[in-house]
């Protein structure tokens, strides 16, 4: 505490003189008033009883005198204009950068405080330590950088912003932009300082930005950069959904196949339930157990889901505390998927027209198959129909197969009828009246297909390579083979015309399974969009042919479906079929095309955090990034008074004291 | 009102005898007395005859008793009828008509002079009223003003026309000095050759001598009537607002006492004052002495009528 007004010696003189005057006036005041009474003898009787209180009366007089001296001392102190040390230093400006990424929602201590809670506590301590000339601003660095409180010296504004406008969100902290913003804001200000409050669970760009900040902070004239690391000492588990997608089966639009990727980012094994819901109703699920660091890709086949929106959730096992703790922050335990529309598959049948069974089997799939029939002479890979086909069936009897074979999924019957064949799987031997003695029942291609008792005149077995799948065999010789490469190739080593397979129920099932199988290979999962403040997207990715589209309307997900208030759509400009979308909330966004040929088209897009790096709670700050000198120390002590001269407060105390003394005097409590 | 004015403005001021008594008995007062006299006589007549009588036998007209004849008795008083019937020589005795004096004794000590002498003025008005009624009833009326320093007396006078002498006495008598009820009563008793009705008007602020003085008069065959004149503020100073450290100065002496006045202390004083007055009244009444307590807030004529209603002062 320093005196900015009168010097201590001057104040001493004033106090000495003042106390002398007060004492003199007090002695004068202590002269008793004389009151004449007519019956003194009676007064003697009653006053004798109060003699015992004489000591207290003396003390009251002394107390009153001391109050006067205290008043004088307060006035002298006010004249001295006392100021705390913190007020006398140069005014400083502090940019408080708070990491609001998903990892900040993780528990930071045993009391259940999150990392963000501790960061806010530290930020509050910094604000409360500001001197009257100091300023600060608050920058929240999440997926998007925001400034809850601009540069101000008003602690109330800063504290209110910390209370109301800073919350952890999904995604990574964009510290690069946040620190750049902080540095620009502090430019030209005295004693600039950047305080980064983070848990250190950052991605590469953010780590680089912190490293640059601390390195520049060591330079003369640059803003000092300090990092306060939160929650590093508290081990916490986390399991995140890092991918989630769904697609329909080509042959059955009421069923979907779901792909979920889950990763255990914690140090302990994790047990939990993976649950998939559509409109709040569970449609599938699985209990999983993951070792530390393990990642599981789970495919949940044939889920009943007529709706187009799916939600995957990680749920702790009932009454299992460890299970709940291992899941970590909930922000990455939930993911969304939109089931993409399924276009009909392009199927080409190359046939000599002698086998109508195959064409009939394909025609039964006309709801989801667009069938093109070609003659053997038209079955060349250069044929446009074959170039765009998803699956090509070759049933051409004695006609040669095209060489090379088309670069697509193929189903070829009796490929080794002719000696010269482009089929890459060699013939093993000729078979006479083969019996289909073994079949790989669990393969999707053979689901529901029974080759038992199928008769045929002759056939060929294949000399398969490692990786080839022998689906059906004759006494160990593969007669139906699947080769998986960039495209699939199903080889059936006999001619349909020389067997009774087309007459059996297994035949149309085999054809449908082949179309489904190759269709599922082609129709990939549509990945969700990762969270980001400005994602560059192409309309074509969502099936909208919109090179001429210039205006879109993007409606964010409705976070509270029970609320009648619908989310406000945002208008977004598009150019050359591309647009930028602000996707900061996980969920399903609706994109409506406002102009162009595709005007009126509406597509839905799922936005997920789906980022293992964002879900990783482990600090990546090291000595190289943040040297010891750049680590923030203990929180500063609160400033005694953040605003206003202290002497006004002292005078306020003095006036209050006078009021109390006046009131007590008139009630005869003091003298 | 200033605190000091409630009980006493200052010792010097109170002891200067500067009580303004010039307008004490004006025309209005005389009219009040005339009216009072009429009302009072009506009250008295309803009870007894107007004149006062002694209990002595003598030369009156009303037969009282017989006694043996003694040499020297007036032979005209011999009851010859009794002698004729019984042969005894008895003389007839008659009650003697004699006017007994009404003595009004007014305390003029310093304690009666507080608050501009309002208690003294009140006491003097009562005394004047009683004197007027007495003189109008052909009673002999004497007055005495007393304190430890003052003792002035008007010998018994008779006749309504003498009322102005009473007024002059009351207006001009010396005032002041400590209270000395016993001494005052003692001198009244000594000066009175004939005991009569003695009305003592005082605040009786004398712990020891108040009752002793009255009792001494009674012992000397006086029919004593005590009228205590009180100032309600003095009797109960709780509401005066007087608080804090003060020096209490006795109006009648140099005694001082430093006290801290508080509400509780003032309440204690009021209770002690009440006890004192009650005790004095009870002692007087127990010995057949009528005791009246008069507040200066009460109109004096109301008090006088109250006294006459009770009886004993005039017959």
From TrEMBL, chain A:
Domain VWFA, chain residue ranges per copy: 94-200
Cell division listed as a keyword: no
Superkingdom assignment: Bacteria
Transmembrane segments: 6-28, 62-80, 646-665
Domain named Aerotolerance regulator N-terminal: residues: 21-82
Pfam family name, one: BatA
InterPro entries: Aerotolerance_reg_N, VWF_A, vWFA_dom_sf
Record's keyword terms, sorted: Membrane, Transmembrane, Transmembrane helix
Region: Disordered, residue numbers: 618-640
Gene3D superfamilies per UniProt: von Willebrand factor, type A domain
Coiled coil: none
Protein name: VWFA domain-containing protein
Organism from which the protein derives: Enhygromyxa salina
Lineage per the UniProt record: Bacteria, Pseudomonadati, Myxococcota, Polyangia, Nannocystales
From TrEMBL, chain B:
Domain DUF58: 65-273
SUPFAM superfamilies for the chain: vWA-like
Domain of life, source organism: Bacteria
Classification via CDD domains: vWFA
Protein name in the entry: DUF58 domain-containing protein
Origin species: Enhygromyxa salina
């Amino acid at each position: 505490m320093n005196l900015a007004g009168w010097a201590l010696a001057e104040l001493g003189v004033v106090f000495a003189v003042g106390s002398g005057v007060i004492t003199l006036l007090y002695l004068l005041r202590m002269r008793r008033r004389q009151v004449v009474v007519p019956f003194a003898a009676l007064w003697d009787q009653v006053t004798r009883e109060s003699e015992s209180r004489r000591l207290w009366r003396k003390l009251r007089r002394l107390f009153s005198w001391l109050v006067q001296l205290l008043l004088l001392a307060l006035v002298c102190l006010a004249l001295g204009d006392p100021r705390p040390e913190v007020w006398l230093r140069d005014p400083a400006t502090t940019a408080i950068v708070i990491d609001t990424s998903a990892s900040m929602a993780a528990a930071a201590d045993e009391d259940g405080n999150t990392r963000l809670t501790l960061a806010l506590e530290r930020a509050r301590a910094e604000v409360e330590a500001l001197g009257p000339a100091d300023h600060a601003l608050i920058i929240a660095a999440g997926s998007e950088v925001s400034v809850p409180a601009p540069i101000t010296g008003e602690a109330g504004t800063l504290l209110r912003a910390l209370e109301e406008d800073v919350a952890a969100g999904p995604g990574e902290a964009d510290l690069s932009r946040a620190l750049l913003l902080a540095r620009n804001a502090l430019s030209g200000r005295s004693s600039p300082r950047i305080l980064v409050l983070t848990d250190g669970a950052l991605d590469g760009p953010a780590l680089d930005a912190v490293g640059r900040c601390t390195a520049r902070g060591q330079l003369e004239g640059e803003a000092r950069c300090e990092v306060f690391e939160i929650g590093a000492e508290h081990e916490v588990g986390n399991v995140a959904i890092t991918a989630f997608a769904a697609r329909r089966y080509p042959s059955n639009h009421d069923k979907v196949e779901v792909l979920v990727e889950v990763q255990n980012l914690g140090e302990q094994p994790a047990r939990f339930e993976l649950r998939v819901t559509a409109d709040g109703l569970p449609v599938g699920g699985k209990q999983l157990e993951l070792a530390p660091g393990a990642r599981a890709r789970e495919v949940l086949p044939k889920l009943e889901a007529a709706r187009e929106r799916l939600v995957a959730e990680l749920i702790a096992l009932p009454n299992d505390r460890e299970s709940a703790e291992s899941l970590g922050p909930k922000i990455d335990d939930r993911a969304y998927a939109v089931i993409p529309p399924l276009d009909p598959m392009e199927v080409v049948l190359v046939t000599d027209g002698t086998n109508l069974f195959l064409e009939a089997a394909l025609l039964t799939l006309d709801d989801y198959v667009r069938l093109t029939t070609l003659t053997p002479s038209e079955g060349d890979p250069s044929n446009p129909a074959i170039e765009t086909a998803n699956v090509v069936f070759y049933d051409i009897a004695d006609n040669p197969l095209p060489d090379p074979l088309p670069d697509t999924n193929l189903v070829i019957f009796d490929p080794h009828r002719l000696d010269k064949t482009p089929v890459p799987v060699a013939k093993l031997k000729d078979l006479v009246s083969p019996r289909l003695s073994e079949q790989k029942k669990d393969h999707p291609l053979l689901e529901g297909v029974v080759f038992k008792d199928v008769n045929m005149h002759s056939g060929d077995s294949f000399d398969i390579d490692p990786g080839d799948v022998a689906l059906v065999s004759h006494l160990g010789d593969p007669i139906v083979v699947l080769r998986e490469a960039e495209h699939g190739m199903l080889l059936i080593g006999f001619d349909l015309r020389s067997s009774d397979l087309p007459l059996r129920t297994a035949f149309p099932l085999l054809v449908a399974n082949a179309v489904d199988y190759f269709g599922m290979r082609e129709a990939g999962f549509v990945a969700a969009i990762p969270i980001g403040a400005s994602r560059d997207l192409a309309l074509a990715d969502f099936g909208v042919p919109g090179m001429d589209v210039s205006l879109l309307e993007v409606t964010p997900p409705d976070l509270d479906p029970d609320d009648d208030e619908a989310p406000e759509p945002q208008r977004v400009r598009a150019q050359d079929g591309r647009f930028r979308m602000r996707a900061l909330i996980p969920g399903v966004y609706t994109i409506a095309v406002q102009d162009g040929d595709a005007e009126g088209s509406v597509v839905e897009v799922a936005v997920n955090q789906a980022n293992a790096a964002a879900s990783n709670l482990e600090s990546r700050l090291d000595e190289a990034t943040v040297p010891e000198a750049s680590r923030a120390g203990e929180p500063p002590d609160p400033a005694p008074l953040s605003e206003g001269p202290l002497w006004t407060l002292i005078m306020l105390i003095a006036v209050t004291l006078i009021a109390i003394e006046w009131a007590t005097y008139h009630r005869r409590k003091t003298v | 009102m200033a605190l000091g004015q409630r009980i006493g403005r200052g010792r010097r001021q109170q002891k200067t005898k500067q009580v303004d008594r010039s307008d004490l008995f004006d025309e209005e007062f005389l009219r009040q007395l005339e009216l009072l006299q009429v009302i009072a006589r009506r009250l008295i007549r309803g009870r007894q005859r107007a004149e006062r009588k002694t209990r002595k036998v003598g030369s009156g007209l009303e037969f009282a008793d017989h006694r043996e004849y003694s040499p020297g008795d007036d032979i005209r008083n011999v009851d010859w009828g009794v002698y004729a019937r019984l042969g005894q020589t008895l003389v007839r005795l008659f009650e003697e008509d004699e006017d007994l004096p009404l003595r009004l004794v007014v305390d003029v000590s310093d304690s009666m002079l507080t608050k501009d002498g309002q208690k003294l003025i009140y006491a003097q008005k009562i005394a004047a009223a009683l004197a007027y009624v007495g003189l109008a009833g052909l009673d002999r009326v004497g007055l005495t003003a007393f304190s430890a320093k003052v003792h002035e007396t008007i010998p018994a006078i008779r006749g309504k026309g003498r009322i102005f002498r009473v007024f002059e006495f009351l207006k001009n008598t010396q005032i002041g000095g400590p209270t000395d009820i016993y001494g005052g009563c003692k001198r009244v008793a000594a000066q009175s050759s004939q005991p009569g009705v003695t009305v003592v008007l005082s605040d009786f602020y004398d712990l020891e001598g108040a009752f002793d003085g009255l009792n001494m008069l009674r012992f000397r065959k006086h029919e004593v009537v005590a009228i205590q004149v009180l100032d309600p503020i003095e009797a109960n100073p709780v509401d005066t607002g007087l608080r804090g450290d003060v020096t209490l100065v006795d109006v009648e002496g140099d005694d001082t006492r430093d006290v801290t006045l508080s509400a509780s202390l003032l309440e204690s004083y009021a209770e002690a004052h009440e006890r004192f007055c009650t005790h004095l009244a009870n002692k007087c009444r127990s010995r057949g002495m009528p005791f009246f307590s008069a507040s200066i807030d009460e109109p004096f004529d109301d008090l006088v009528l109250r006294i006459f209603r009770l009886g004993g002062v005039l017959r």
